[in-house]
Design goal:
Elements (H helix, E strand, L loop, with lengths): L1 E7 L3 E7 L3 H13 L3 E8 L6 E8 L4 H28 L1
Helix pairs in contact: 1-2
């Protein structure tokens, strides 16, 4: 995954992301939207034939980079739990 900060303000950050699957970004977006301090979180694919995406996060008062890091960590834990549940279901 290659991430570039395209724009950053006090309560907003915009990222350009390459070479990642959009499903991972949707999980992060879902975690962001669960946070009460997040006003807006979205991911778009620039073109259907490329792996280039744009993510924008707007918060009420919190630092958007901090909120994004927390959501990424939460998404990682969610993914680990999902893998664990799948492995235990396969063993049965």
């Amino acid at each position: 995954m290659f991430v570039e900060i395209a724009n950053v303000k006090d309560t907003e950050i915009e990222l350009k992301i390459r070479e990642e699957d959009i499903s991972v970004l949707y999980i992060i977006q879902h975690e962001l939207l669960k946070e009460k301090s997040v006003d807006f979180a979205a991911v778009i694919q620039k073109h259907p034939l490329t792996n280039e995406y744009q993510m924008r996060v707007t918060t009420k008062r919190k630092d958007p980079m901090e909120v994004l890091q927390d959501a990424s960590a939460s998404a990682q834990e969610y993914s680990k739990d999902l893998v664990s549940m799948i492995k235990s279901a396969i063993r049965k």
